[in-house]
Amino acid sequence: MKKLVQLAEPGSADESLARKLDSEVLPRHVAVIMDGNGRWAQERGRPRVEGHRAGVAAVRDTIEGAAELGLEVLTLYAFSVENWKRPRYEVWTLMNLLKEYLLKELSNLVENDIRLTVLGRWRELDPSVVSLIERAEQATRDCRGLRLNIALNYSGRMEIVDACRQIVADWAQGKGTDIDEETLGRYLYTSGLPDPDLLIRTSGEMRISNFLLWQISYSEICVIDTLWPDFRRGHLIQAILDFQTRNRRFGGLQSDSEDDVCDTRSV
Ligand code: FPP
Questions:
Q1: What is the CATH number for 91?
Q2: Residue 167, ligand 1, Cβ within 6 A
Q3: Is residue 184 situated within a structural domain?
């Protein structure tokens, strides 16, 4: 967080927003449903793909902001399994933007100590995408700063199905363990990472859209009206400030409640 305050232009809106943050209550993991690219383009009388192109600048700024804030994990929803239902040209453009991003930004990621991992059935994508992902994952493997997850060809339900299939496969090899929440979590694409504390969705839509279904059980949700291409680190800070006003109870009562806790299964 200090870094963001130092790097922001003195007297800028970002600097004064960042100064309001409580560094003790930063979310460890922020997940983002980047929505509204199509509407952004439509509002300007331009083809939908222009919205996706403009969305890449928002991706860059958000990643930079998250790294400067010192967040541990940022997960961006870039392409869902359901997105294959879109017109061929739109899908092609999205895949190309991704390839371009991986080509152009890899050195920046390494320089900024950002480790990139891709969540989803990305190995089923075109070999040109797969090889760029493999290269980026490999090149950033030892980075210890921000962990950047890009969800690609991703579905939350499919992630749980994939985890179950892998558990069954391990059983067949005699590596079976009891299934509990902790075990299942270890088989998810996000294995080893904390669950998102904060889920942000842009463009005002109140939907989860099959994103991180298991992991967001207790995430705080922040829906903002801004369309994704207009999103910048200032919006990220605003969302975190909102998060810092929430009273997270995880199904219990306020942490300062003086009542006895009922920790048995009968009363
Ligand atoms: C949703 O907007 C956005 C997407 C399906 C794609 C998000 C992709 C990018 C921001 C660019 C590439 C990403 C990376 C990581 C380089 P929408 O098209 O559903 O918008 P609408 O609801 O207004 O139609």
A1: 3.40.1180.10
A2: no
A3: no
DSSP letter for 35, please. Answer: -
Q: Tell me the three state secondary structure of residue 168.
A: helix
Rg (CA), the chain: 20
Q: For the chain, how many structural domains are there in total?
A: 1
**Over the stretch 126-154, which tens digit does the pLDDT of each residue have?**
999 999 999 999 999 999 999 999 999 99
Reply yes or no on whether 83 is catalytic.
Answer: yes
Which residue minimizes the CA distance to atom 13 of ligand 1? 78
In degrees and rounded to multiples of 5, residue 204 shows phi and psi of: 80, 0
Question: How many whole angstroms from 34 Cα to the centroid of ligand 1?
Answer: 6
Asked, for residue 102, whether it belongs to a domain, the answer is yes
* Ligand 1 atom at shortest distance from the alpha carbon of 90: 18
Domain residues for 205? 23-158+195-245
The model carries a pTM of: 0.95
